[in-house]
Design a protein that fits this description.
Layout: H1 15-84, H2 93-106, E1 112-116, E2 122-127, E3 133-136, E4 160-161, E5 165-167, E6 170-181, E7 184-194, H3 195-203, E8 211-216, E9 221-225, E10 243-244, H4 245-248, H5 251-254, E11 260-261, H6 266-270, E12 274-280, E13 283-292, E14 300-307, H7 309-358, H8 374-396, H9 399-408, H10 410-413, E15 417-429, H11 431-435, H12 440-460, E16 464-469, E17 472-477, H13 486-510, E18 517-534, E19 537-543, H14 545-560, E20 566-571, H15 572-575, E21 584-591, E22 598-604, H16 617-622
Parallel strand pairs: 18-20
Antiparallel strand pairs: 1-2, 1-7, 2-3, 4-6, 5-6, 6-7, 8-9, 8-14, 9-10, 11-12, 12-13, 13-14, 15-17, 15-18, 16-17, 18-19, 20-22, 21-22
Helix pairs in contact: 1-7, 7-8, 12-13
């Protein structure tokens, strides 16, 4: 067994791809390294400063909010101690109101203090924006009708922050503690603060006219906004607080859902601070926000945004330099790939055209173009000359034989040997008389058209055309490809030729041209097949007595059926190799010219369908 090629079975990569990708990767790697080092240094410096600024601003806001609300919580706890110890007697409502008024007057952060008894009745003190105190004995007596729903509070509970309360007076955050006596809650103390007061405290953190602070509750409702009259983007708010963010009319806050997340603010992100870039009304803004929990049922979002002229300019500069550098890298890689493809394209063309030559599809070969590269130009010239020579040789050597010899290997397949084959010899009846009325060109055209029909039928059944002899043709089956069904294939070919000739005759008669009659002889026997000839002039052919028998059978057709359009005669040696059911009739024993003994001759049905013999191929091959 021949050794297996080393690279057989491995996936092969086109040379153009290797060269172009190699150039591209080399250039891309070099440019990317320089670009990476430059951008990395700038990014680290710029975003380190931006991270520190974001953290400082948001943490300051969070401390301010928590400090404001925690002091309010501490005041409630201090009052709870007095009420729990009955130092403020709940049964003395007037005294309670007086004490609550004093506590409210002393605490600037608390807007409302109220007591809720077990029956749900509420009374307390409300501090108006002008500082005036309004004691009330039921909630409806206070301006704005401050009402709230008690949160779930246990006797041992710490201060519990309830949901925000909204009425005509504004929005109120509230905290509730139980008043516990003898281990049982006897009432609930609630302190509320106006979010506008908290907003005043938060506004103090504004960094001037170019920044805005805000607080949003968990239901996407804006409850604090430092720009109550003129927005940073220009124009006035479209609604009073509290209001949904979308209805308030601040384009910066409305653009949060589509804002660009700055993932490079990793230090701020690690602390829960989100930094966004937002474009509104043609300006760039930087928005920073963080959730704050513990003062409502849902977290609040506190944050600040400011004009990003300086910051965004730096970010854009970095982004621009990165984009330009990346673009330059892409261009360099594409140029390298293009250059690689240009260099390797001639070699790719040679490989593609060589593949056609390997398949002997010489009609599909396109001449290679000349090249400015000396070596490539020499290869192109030599290749084109080789193709011209192959086409010329293929004109005189049967194409089917050429392909078989190339596939099997000329040295092995063309070596002369003895083999059992089936041969077919055809001849046109009365061609000499027909050609007398034709010019030389017309005669050649007629023969070429006729032989074209015959060759197509032979090659369609895997046969080999040996030669054309005048108006006759010799073909055989069983070499160079060995096959057990060579007789069956030869008979099918004869029947296909009969059908093709009869169809061609009908077209000739319809066109007013003469038809032709054909004799076909078939014989199976032992012959010598292979290269026969002189050292510089070999011919792959068959030689032997069986070839003469085949030619004599064809000649016998003029005696057996002189008037048939197509007559097919076969020897007993061929008929015995056919499966049962073949349509044929004996015509007796005949002594052929040049033969000492008689030959049993059979006449095949020229109108039989060749497909009838296809179903027995497997049976014949097995036999």
């Amino acid at each position: 067994m021949a050794a297996r090629p080393r690279f057989m079975g491995l996936r092969q990569i086109p040379l153009t791809r290797v060269v172009s990708l190699g150039f591209g990767l080399l250039v891309g790697a070099a440019v990317s390294l320089v670009l990476f080092m430059m951008v990395k240094a700038n990014v680290q410096n710029t975003f380190s400063l931006l991270n520190d600024k974001a953290i400082l601003i948001i943490q300051s806001m969070e401390r301010q909010v928590r400090g404001y609300l925690d002091q309010m919580e501490d005041a409630v706890v201090a009052l709870k101690v007095l009420l729990d110890e009955d130092q403020i007697t709940l049964s003395d409502k007037e005294g309670v109101l007086a004490d609550l008024s004093a506590a409210l007057a002393a605490n600037s952060r608390i807007t409302v203090l109220l007591i809720t008894d077990p029956k749900g009745e509420t009374y307390g003190v409300y501090k108006a924006p002008n500082g005036k105190l309004w004691p009330f004995r039921k909630a409806s007596d206070v301006p704005g009708g401050v009402r709230h729903a008690l949160p779930e509070v246990m006797p041992s509970s710490r201060p519990v922050w309830g949901p925000l309360v909204t009425n005509s007076s504004g929005v109120f955050a509230n905290v509730t503690v139980p008043i516990v006596q003898d281990g049982k809650p006897v009432a609930y103390l609630t302190a509320a603060t106006s979010m506008s007061s908290l907003g005043d405290a938060v506004r103090a953190l504004d960094e001037g006219p170019d920044s805005t602070t805000f607080i949003i509750n968990g239901e996407d409702e804006l409850i604090v906004h430092s720009d109550q009259h003129l927005l940073l983007t220009g124009g006035s708010p479209q609604a009073t607080l509290p209001a949904p963010v979308a209805r308030f009319g601040d384009p910066v806050l409305a653009g949060v859902p589509t804002g660009e997340h700055f993932s490079t603010f990793q230090k701020a992100a690690d602390l829960g601070i989100e930094v966004l870039g937002i474009e509104a009304n043609g300006e760039d803004f930087i928005l920073m926000r963080v959730p704050i929990t513990g003062y409502s049922e849902t977290p609040w979002i506190i944050g600040q945004y400011f004009r990003g002229t300086s910051v965004s300019r730096e970010i854009r500069r970095l982004s621009g330099s990165a984009v330009v550098g990346f673009g330059a890298m892409i261009v360099a890689v594409l140029l390298a790939i293009w250059l690689g493809r240009r260099v390797a394209r001639p070699l790719r063309d040679i490989a593609e055209q060589s593949e056609h030559v390997g398949r002997l599809a010489l009609d599909e070969v396109t001449p290679l173009p000349r090249s400015r590269v000396k070596e490539l130009d020499q290869v192109a010239l030599a290749f084109n000359a080789m193709v011209i020579g192959l086409k010329a040789m293929n004109t005189y050597v049967p194409r089917s034989l050429f392909r078989k010899l190339m596939r099997l290997g000329i040295d092995r397949a063309a070596m002369a040997r003895e083999a059992e084959l089936t041969m077919l010899f055809s001849d046109i009846v009365g061609f000499t008389a027909v050609s007398e009325h034709l010019t030389a060109a017309e005669t050649a055209e007629l023969l070429n058209e006729h032989f074209g029909l015959l060759v197509e039928a032979v090659e369609g059944e895997g046969g080999t055309v040996d030669k054309f002899v005048g108006d006759g043709m010799l073909a055989f089956w069983g070499a160079p490809d060995a096959r057990a069904d060579h007789a069956v294939a030869a008979v099918r070919t004869a029947q296909r030729i009969s059908q093709a000739v009869k169809t061609w005759n009908q077209q000739q008669i319809a066109a007013g041209r003469p038809a032709m009659r054909l004799r076909i002889g078939l014989h199976s026997g032992s012959v010598v097949v292979g290269n026969v000839g002189a050292l510089d002039r070999w011919n792959y052919t068959i030689v032997g007595d069986a070839v003469n028998v085949c030619e004599r059978l064809q000649s016998l057709g003029r005696e057996v059926a002189p008037d048939d359009e197509v007559v097919i005669l076969a020897s007993d040696a061929t008929i015995t190799r056919l499966p049962p059911g073949c349509v044929c009739a004996p015509v007796g024993s005949h002594r052929l010219r040049g033969r000492s003994g008689d030959v049993e001759v059979w006449k095949l049905d020229a109108d039989a369908d060749p497909a009838l013999l296809r179903d027995v191929d497997g049976q014949v091959a097995a036999e």
